[in-house]
# Entry
Amino acid sequence: MNMRLFLLTLLLSFDAVGSAQSLAGRWKTIDDETGRVKSIVEMTERNGLFFGEVVELFRLPEEDQDPHCDKCEDDRKDQRVLGMDIVRDMETDEGEWNEGSICDPKNGKVYGCKMWFEEGEPNVLKVRGYWGFIYRTQEWMRQ
# Structure
């Protein structure tokens, strides 16, 4: 009996470690310039690719409380930021995700995107948007 309990506990602990490395779930986005929490993005897998939808916004009183992507030039043009897929088509590649894109609804620009976990920190996701050799990296925290 004790051996069964031990094996069950061991299997569950491996499952918890494995799920901690998953990109799926809710992530608190932190602005790399201000350090302020900007939103919650929910990452989901669809047909083997990951997408990130804005599910909550944290706006200052003087900011538009229901912003739309009026500067976007693709299918997101004039779409509400709340509910928008800002991350699209991220492919898994040995513990990293890349080949997808990320949209900055503030300026409407779409950048190449790469994501990876901070080493030893499965609840800290590094998110890099880039255009050529120019890039910015944010830290997102698991909710």
